Amino acid sequence: MGIQFKSHLGSVDHSLPALPVSASGNLSLNTPVGSCVDHYGRVWLADTAHNRLLVLDADLDTVLLSFGTVGNGDGQFNMPFRLLAHPDKQLIYVTDIGNYRVHILSYDEDNISPVSTFGDTPDVDLKGPNGIVYYQGKLCVADEFYEGPDGVSRLVVFSDEGDYLYDIHQITGYKNPVELLWPQGLSVDRQGRIYIANTGFNTVVRCDWQGKGIPFSATGKPYIDGLELARDVAIIQGKVLITGGKANAISVYGQNGVSQGALAGYFSPIQLTEFPQENTFLVTEPILASLQLHKANLKQVQRGREVFPVVLTQIGDERDRHGQLHFATSAAGDVGPAQENLPNEQSPTLMHWLAQQQMDQLEQQQEKFLKLTEMSGVPTWLNMGLNWQMEWMQRWQRSWLSLFIPSAVADEDESLWVVDAGNYQLQSTDNLKPNSLRSASMPLLPGSLGIAALTPLNPLPGQLAPDVPLLVVSNYLSGIVTIYQYHPFYRELIPYTAFGAQGSAPWQLNKPQGLAIDPVSRDIFIADSGNNRIVRWRLNGLGIAGLVDTFGTQGDGDNEFHTPSDIAVSEDGLCYIADQFNHRIQITTLEGQPVRRFGKPGYGTDDDHFLLPTSVEFEQGHLFVSDLVNRAVKVFDRNDECVSSFAAFGADSSKGQLWMPYLMHVRNQRIYLPDCALNRVNVYHFEAGDQA
Amino acid sequence: MSVFARASAKRRKDRQQIEQQGNSMGAVSEADSEELLETIREVIRKTSADPKMDREAAVEHLNRLQEKHHKLLSGKCITGP
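YS: structure for the whole thing
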């Protein structure tokens, strides 16, 4: 009995031509996080999910050096995260978060050499080295996942050679000690004061090197509050810049703690690094797979004003190469025809006829394109376009063919659909190989997030291919749920019906995430995360969507939720809800009556301790929970006992490791877990054993 | 009570404050969202009213739908999980 990692979907493309090479068109990044500028004015970038460092020229035109591979040896990384250039020596510090250590690298114009690593010895035992700063011969490292008394995190202070000096467990000197939870980015100002992005509490805390809080004069508190999130902090042009402080913006504060306004036009930035040119700074946008150089005079950010910086340059190609994923959020299987409905070989049906028509048409189209590409005098750009068109057509039609006649092209059991949110598309596969994903739809609407396959109990009016399940897709940004059907004549997904829309009224949705289909009634259950509730919709016999019920309000009691992110429904009529920010699983009836709940907040990879459980699925008497901060998939029996688990933090694609797992799908004991930061879908197998 | 519970309580309080300020809703306004919903329904009406509509015309409808969403949501981000 247990969970075994089998494979992953989503191709890994970190190849580079011989260096130096232009950064344009040659550089595919995978969730880059850290950056710094070295003594030569060159830019270093942590290409985190690719487990390497890149060095670029000061203009970000050319990739000069690439350093590192995945692993835990010298010069190897598992998620190189933040970078720091020593101000005096030719040294770069790299927090290697998945290996729980910090690297010291030396460099000259042509080479990078490992010097040493520190922090992974038993006496220090870093649990999640993230942000790092330097001041007067000392380093301070944010140990994000350290578990101190009551679960608090810590800062760890080292000499600049990596010798351990002491810990800081809480920030003192204020009315009550200020606790740290999941500290990420750090920064120092010219006076050496440390600023901490204290992510767990949505604050930025300021202290000295002994951990004594330094109040902001405007509030008298040693922290900035009222932030939507605090992912990172940087002191730039004398201002306090907080990424995540406001959605799609960088919050700007004075050093007195007063909000000045914001820099606008961002996506989801993390690290900011001051750049040598006037009013310029580097921004990493991990989700966009991009490093950008921006220019803005922060003096203009005042009185709540929003300023749009000038984007001087950016690097990182689109993540749309074959088989690549870009912010994969969810997966669905079970989209092939139900076994009992499969057409009989001896009695051809409309579906077989359609399939044959498609195959014939595909062959004809291929012939046409081949003739065109073989013609002499066809310009190169046209030839390339035609080849691309043909290839796209092949993979697209192959995907649809697998729906109709799975046995002809694949094992139906292995078909899977993935919401590739960053590329606005569905991708599909029928063989679970890393590079097997193929575009399989017209562009999805931006913001598409969750997906579920819905086979109505009876064919619905206007359902053009009843053998092909409908696909229900939630949209996080617009609050709309769209139900798509396959149109056999257009050979395309088209909307069948849609409902929801942004708001808090019963029929509206706010940041809907995971979906579940009741296997008995086929009702649609939605985790309406922004409204802290579950909503239940139904397609009636006429195909009209109607609201059945909503249940839950914000809170931490029975039938109260704090950002429910996913839901599963069992055949015996129970709802299993990932009550994400309450760190627990709630179980209710289909009508929302509380049945029980379980889970305690805390670290743990093989028990009922949860930290932001994000996704749930129920299959064959087992509840599967994806536990985000613990980077674990846990399986529970009907007594809420954890019977199996798989946990691994990191970016090693060969080991099923996880960084930001999102909405899971389980089918026939296979666990499909999209990781939106690693840009892949991990596939695991669960063997129930005697306890099934 | 663990630090996790205290942090959860603070986040809930923060969120209530943000809701009181009227800033809790998602990336688009209610009106914009309603408009997007209506554009989806319009495509459904068109494609269902004429199931034999030329494929190119149908695809054009779908493209326009996507473009409209993209324009309205440009620069917005999925911040979960």
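YS: worth flagging: Residues 350-374 of chain A form the longest helix (25 residues).
IM: good catch. Also The longest strand of chain A covers residues 492-500.
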